[in-house]
Amino acid sequence: MFCFPYREILYETIRNTFFHVPMWFVMTMLVFTSFVASIMFYTKSDMKWDLLAHQSVIAALLFGTCGYLTGLVWAKYTWYIGVSWGDVLRKLLLEDIKMAAALAAMFFYFGYLVLRDAFTDKAKRANIAALYNILAFIIFVMCVFVLPRLTDSMHPGNGGNPAFSKYDLDSTLRLFFYPAVIGWILLGFWILSVLIRIQLIQQKREL
Fold first, then answer.
1. Which of 78, 91, 184, 203 has the highest count of CB atoms within 10 angstroms of its CB?
2. Measured between alpha carbons, how far is 16 from 197 in angstroms, rounded to an integer?
3. Rounded to an integer, what distance in angstroms lies between the CA atom of residue 119 and that of residue 13?
4. Which pLDDT tens digit goes with each residue over 73-98?
5. Sign of torsion, CA 36 39 41 45?
């Protein structure tokens, strides 16, 4: 019989670990892929790398948005039970550096998409977007992995708050968590492959 850790405050919501946490893993993998693709574009000057970078950001934002929303739901029913959604969002942005920094990082990538639409010349768009994308990844790393560790945060593993694996992720939960991470990452790259194929089909139709 399987039994999940029944930790105070989290209780059954600990099952959200299989969704919320892996989605951020996926986003990180996808923005890293986009970062590498932008570097390769500068070294190879091949538009296929621009295509990979662009679609990787789109897929990453999909999972990042889902990860953020599942985080809001989790926070409402654990940290701020009984308050409105507006209060949840306001308190998280003001009191939890990781939520605020992650949202800022996502806006930089939304800015990447807006920047691309500002140019009609494909070569110029690809060059400027690649440079912006490289800077956006550096900001992403700072916002998600560096800043939360410099100050207090309600998130486990930040600001002196021990990582959830030290007291929540027991041997039973690991049987589901790690396969979930692998499964979500594979799903993320499958979605990326679908997005790329759609773009290639559209490009052929335009010829």
1. 184
2. 32
3. 45
4. 887 777 765 567 777 777 777 777 88
5. negative
CA pair distance 131, 189, nearest whole angstrom = 23
- How many other CB atoms are there within 10 angstroms of residue 29's CB atom? 19
Residue linked to tokens 């039973």: 172
List, for residues 124-150, the tens digit of each pLDDT value: 999 999 999 999 999 999 988 888 777
- Which residue carries 């800043």 as its tokens? 147
Q: What's the sign of the alpha-carbon dihedral 55, 16, 169, 8?
A: positive
Burial class, 81, CB count within 10 angstroms (exposed 0-12 / middle 13-18 / buried 19+):
exposed
Categorize the per-residue pLDDT at 160 as very low, low, confident or very high, splitting at 50, 70 and 90: very low
Dmax (CA) of the chain: 61
d(CA 190, CA 60): 12
Per-residue CA distances from 16 to 25, 126, 173 (Å) = 14, 38, 11
Residues 190 and 199: their CA atoms lie apart, in Å, by 14
Cβ-contact 153, 96 below 8 angstroms? yes
Secondary structure letter of residue 75 according to DSSP: H
CB 133 within 8 A of CB 111: no
Closest CA to 56 of 127, 136, 125: 136
Residue reference for tokens 């500068």 = 42
Measured in Å, how far apart are the chain's first and last C-alpha atoms? 59
